[in-house]
Design brief:
Strands 3-2-1-4-5-6 form a six-stranded parallel sheet, with helices on both faces. Helices cover 37% and strands 18% of the residues. The protein is of the alpha/beta class. The radius of gyration is 22 Å and the shape is globular. The chain is built from 16 helices and twelve strands.
Length: 422
């Protein structure tokens, strides 16, 4: 396929290759524990958890039961594992009920039982069991405020863990008599087990003081009682080395790096030189877009480490500081900054999308940018600066017909960005 003839088709092929690398049907079965004929209790949370549960059902012949919770629209039919759908990124009552059901199930296990925990991105919001004395309404309000503040996913999860009855190692601690094996699909920069879905089965190195510092840094108000409990350490989480976690094992089965390597291999097959910029890129989405625009414009020039045609690949999780009332997500906001930075540079096309198929508040995975994006927008009286000021990336690309809509992919290895330089 010629990249000059079909740049969007090529970019979509790279995205599809990235998604396929994190398909639970392929990455779960090789990591299942040996079947000793005993009962296996499956629990899980995340956007990929239902598809992971189905993969377990299809490859586990022994006694099997359990419950997993996933985002609305991301469920799949299972026969032996109960699938519950709940809200993401702001938790709801369905997520709270699912978390409490899972917690109750594993807290009654014995040393003869084995637990398989299926954890993926999104699990932090979906496992919504507030700590004693914290209400769901309080968690919802704080989550919404953190999401709008521009806080990183690590900072948000630090707070979530200390307001939870189940995250930050508490889930494994509740099942301390049983053996626990966690299979995880990472959606976080650096693949830190303690950050993926707020680490329900691993020790938490962060502290109540860290959580309080995050809230204070972003100016998020909390009640005097919650401040007292954080300052006193009353809401502290189990730490690495806690004896209650000694029977818990963690295994990473898919990651952002793997999805970028799969996209790079597909690019090479198509005759395009891939350059992986990194799988843990963070920062304000629009500013990251402007920086990458400068890198793309440098391709083919003296000193740049690749000749054209090439494709710049990156992953990670950028943030959006909400100042307007528009719609969209971090990938489309990234593309606004990229389009502005490229300023109609010929021969450069891009795709940015969330690998779970949902970017932010709408039903699109992401969008496309090309050399004609700004010109076509002006014909519709759309201004990229106004779109950024109002955080209305979705409205901008929707009017252009440039949204990428895939539906839920039922996996999640975070953001995928590909910039093709012909």
């Amino acid at each position: 396929m010629s990249p000059r003839a079909h740049p969007r088709d090529l970019l979509r092929r790279l995205f599809d290759a990235a998604i396929a690398a994190a398909d639970p049907a392929l990455c779960v079965p090789p990591h299942l524990p040996p079947n000793d004929g005993g009962r296996l209790i499956v629990i899980g949370a995340g956007k990929a958890s239902a598809a992971m549960a189905l993969a377990v059902e299809q490859h586990w012949p022994g006694p099997l039961e359990g419950t997993v919770v996933t985002r609305y629209g991301h469920g799949v039919p299972c026969e032996r594992i109960k699938i519950i759908e709940a809200s993401h990124p702001v938790p709801d009552a369905a997520g709270e009920a699912a978390a409490l059901s899972i917690f109750d199930q594993i807290s009654r296990l014995t040393a003869a039982d084995r637990v398989l925990a299926l954890i993926s991105g999104g699990g932090s919001a979906l496992l919504a069991a507030p700590a004693l004395g914290v209400t769901l309404a309080e968690k919802r309000a704080l989550t919404s405020a953190l999401l709008r503040s521009g806080a990183s996913i690590g900072e948000i999860n630090c707070v979530r863990k200390h307001l939870s009855a189940i995250k930050g190692g508490r889930l494994a601690a509740a099942a301390w008599q049983a053996s626990v094996l966690t299979l995880a699909i990472s959606d976080v920069p650096g693949d830190d087990p303690a950050v993926i879905a707020s680490g329900p089965t691993v020790g938490d190195p962060t502290t109540c003081a860290d959580a309080l510092n995050v809230l204070d840094f972003y100016g998020i108000a909390i009640t005097a009682e919650l401040r007292r409990r954080l300052e006193s350490g009353e809401l502290e989480t189990p730490k690495p080395g806690d004896p209650r976690l000694s029977s818990s094992q963690f295994r990473l089965i898919a990651s952002p790096r793997q999805m970028l390597e799969a996209a790079a291999a597909e690019a090479q097959r198509l005759g395009i030189t891939p350059i992986i910029l990194g799988d843990a890129i963070e920062g304000e989405a629009r500013e990251v877009g402007k920086v990458m625009a400068g890198m793309a414009r440098s391709c083919g020039q003296h000193g740049f480490p690749a000749k054209t045609p090439c494709v710049l690949l990156s992953g990670g999780e950028t943030t959006v500081t909400m100042k307007g009332a528009g719609r969209g997500g971090r990938n489309t906001e990234f593309l606004l900054g990229l389009a502005q930075g490229l300023d109609a540079t010929p021969g450069i096309h891009a795709l940015a999308a969330d690998t779970d198929g949902i970017d932010g508040s709408e039903d699109n995975a992401g969008a496309f940018v090309g050399p004609d994006t700004l010109a076509r927008a002006r014909q519709l009286d759309l201004d990229v600066r106004q779109a950024m000021a109002g955080n209305d990336a979705w409205g901008y690309f929707s009017a252009l017909g440039d949204l990428l809509v895939t539906g839920p992919t039922r996996t999640n290895v975070n953001d995928f960005r590909a910039i093709l330089v012909e």
